[in-house]
Amino acid sequence: MRVLDKIDVVPLAFESLGVRSMCTYLETPDIKILLDAGVSLGPRRYGLSPHPKEYEALRERRETMLRVAEKVDAVTVSHYHFDHQTPSYTDWAYNWSSAEIADKIYTGKLVFVKSYRSYVNFSQRRRGWLFAKTSGRKAERLEVADGRSFRFGDTNIIFSRPVVHGEENSDLGWIVMTTVEHNEEERFLFASDVQGPMSDGTLEMILAERPHLIVIGGPPLYLAEMVRQENMDRAFENLQKIVEVVPNTILDHHLLRDEGWRTKAQPIFDMASRTGHGVF
Question: pLDDT, tens digit, for every residue of 239-252?
Fold first, then answer.
């Protein structure tokens, strides 16, 4: 996608490409980055196993990810869910992963990760520890990213402090958002599992970054029985506030797991249209 001059953004694996992921390739004149290099399928959704077409998409997206990984300098892990991180064990059923695949993605790279010691639930603490003991040991350098920034030439990579994975006090834990800024003129924001955001505090952080392009995960409509309606409503309200001020928004992930997502998200498209902004 070319909506910026110096920051090139290419979606590699997304729900709209048939898999659970938000893996994105980003390139500036100074650095090449693979954001959240994981991919998954939904196990037993509605009591059903993944369809053969989903397995075709999983293989294709993983192969694309591996080709791109060959040329990148850095890889990020916003949190330790397997649609955002590739584990080092063999699983062809849902993650299309193995130690060899993980090595191709992380070995010799600068790897920026969410801390597994603070602002983390038990599951992600365990996964983060395992990542550090496996792929992390093969990285050129493993950097805990929470609340830190790193400069490469005219490119500044800024990681947020941990924000909630969806609802406040969610059992799903926390994530870190990533802002990439070039020459203090162009700003890209990657906000994976904020689910809208549902959190007003996360919304304030996003707007404060003043991005020109944002990749963001929408609310999980397919989990309506598990998520309070007021939080779903807040997510859509906050998305309208984002597209009102951000020139270009790529909206995907949890939202697109619901068959009727486009109708329910219509107010977001209407707001973007009124302000002359784009939603993809």
Answer: 999 999 999 999 99
